[in-house]
Write a structure and sequence with these properties.
Largest sheet: 6 strands, mixed
Helix content: 25-40%
Structural class: alpha/beta
Order of helices and strands: EEEHEHEHHHHHEHEEE
Bound molecules: adenosine-5'-triphosphate, magnesium ion
Radius of gyration: 17 Å
Oligomer: single chain
Strand order of the largest sheet: 5-6-7-3-8-9
């Protein structure tokens, strides 16, 4: 899958006194096997850019293509190929148990081998049987982050989007997540898009760096090569 943003601008509350121009003429291409890091100051528009890439919001102007098609005509079809772990995991959860949380996207996207997938992803992110039965809101910050990432990969997406995956993590959870991401980045036809303030933590996962600054998205070099 290739996602391409062409001259994409985004304004919140356009035409009102609260109008806020966040992104200006952004050009960005995410291809198979790409690892991309997005850096930028707080409030620079990183999360807004991720929402555009998951078709949760529409550009104010400009075009987004997925494999040369317009994803907004059938966002469900294209979102099937994307897993998104939000910046604040506790705002992402809405199920009574971790297991239900993990099953949600699989049911939503009609995945058939649900039990098999659950046992695979719980191993990958070190979620034990006891945790599966817990309420996600009762977990520690690090456990919540792991569950959020596990539910983002549950339906086997091609592109994994992580918004600040290492923010306020305990060391153990951080190690587990980095270990998982190293493996993910080696898989064929998978890509990774990470927003982070801690780029040095990802040196074992080679990728290209972009910076969001004053509404513009600029190439900023590489890490880990
Ligand atoms: N729903 C909204 N309505 C109006 N303005 C918004 C909305 N969401 C975000 N903004 C504003 O848009 C700008 C970009 O926000 P965004 O959340 O994309 O930044 P960010 O780079 O992810 O910041 P952080 O590093 O703090 O997460 C900020 O000034 C923010 O206040
Ligand atoms: Mg953000």
């Amino acid at each position: 899958m290739t996602i391409e943003l062409k001259n994409v601008s985004f304004i919140y509350n356009k035409g009102t006194p609260l109008e806020k121009v966040v992104l200006k003429n952004v050009n960005l291409k995410i291809k198979q096997n790409d690892v991309i890091y997005l850096l930028g100051k707080t409030g620079s528009g990183k999360t807004t850019l991720l929402y555009l890439i998951d078709f949760l919001i529409k550009p104010t102007s400009g075009i987004i293509y997925v494999d040369y098609q317009n994803p907004y005509k059938n966002p469900y079809k294209y979102r099937r190929k994307i897993g998104f772990a939000f910046q604040f995991p506790e705002r992402q959860f809405f199920s009574e148990t971790v297991k239900d949380e993990l099953m949600f996207s699989m049911k939503n996207f009609n995945i058939i081998n649900i039990d098999e997938r659950i046992s695979l992803i719980k191993d990958i992110l070190d979620i034990d049987d006891e945790m599966l039965e817990k309420n996600p809101f009762s977990l520690s910050g690090g456990e919540q982050r792991r569950v959020a990432i596990a539910s983002a990969i549950a339906h086997d997406p091609e592109l994994l989007i992580l918004d600040e995956p290492t923010a306020s993590l305990d060391f153990i959870s951080e190690e587990k997540i980095i270990k998982f991401l190293i493996e993910w980045s080696k898989l064929d036809k998978k890509s990774l898009l990470i927003v982070t303030h801690d780029i040095e933590k990802f040196e074992k996962i080679p990728g290209e760096i972009y910076t969001v600054n004053n509404g513009e998205v600029l190439r900023g070099g590489y890490i880990g090569f």
